UniProtKB/TrEMBL annotation:
Homodimer. The gene is tpiA. Its EC number is 5.3.1.1. GO terms for molecular function: triose-phosphate isomerase activity. This is Triosephosphate isomerase. It comes from Roseibium polysiphoniae. Its main location: cytoplasm.
Amino acid sequence: MSQTIKPLVAGNWKMNGLRSHLDVASEIAAGISSELAGKVDAMICAPATLIQLLAQSTSATALRIGGEDCHSAESGAHTGDISAEMLADAGATAVIVGHSERRTDHGETDALVKAKAEAAWRAGLVAIICVGETESERKAGRAVEVVSGQLAGSIPDGATAQNTILAYEPVWAIGTGLTPTSGDVEEIHWEMREALIARLGAQGADMRLLYGGSVKPGNAQELMGVKNVDGALVGGASLKATDFLGILAAYA
Ligand SMILES: O=C(CO)COP(=O)(O)O
């Protein structure tokens, strides 16, 4: 945990949540004391259908609301897509780009992820850029190489510690209950930090680096304690208020 960087625990609801799920966010917001909010930022990235409702219901709380993806264009003939401006208009303050499920399901390339990050900034949103190796890439000893390549290709010039957050999510750890060892997380996060400093200087030194992949209340303290881990990106455990608050409690 860095001395100077305020950590962020962000939930990613993925394609989960009807309006009946709004109570979960309210419960999470109610569970964040002002003391805890002084130590860690908290966010839920939600399906586009819920963003406005969530932003309204949590507006007086410390919980921030984000989107899960955006198109690179501001508007136009892109049926079914959502622009960063639309997310901002609905009350989002950030958006995830380049999640491995988007890279896999929709064939998103580093170049597209980079364009989406620039779109996020254009709309005044923070870009949460995701990178991470697959199981076969790790087994082949290529984890550092793959993550470094994604990082170089997905982060636009002009990234700052204010407009960009990086999330390392090993694909094989997502939704599986498997996590890398603390040593493996430390190695990747160190490599990311070095690459960011080499490219962005002080902005890279201050940028938040989240770990994601099967983060639960039971392993949060250990994972969040790893050097250069400045918070978490949480999938399944963000759908239950007690679990998400249990992860935030690692920073209490
Ligand atoms: O993909 C993730 C967050 O973006 C991680 O998902 P899980 O926490 O369910 O493994």
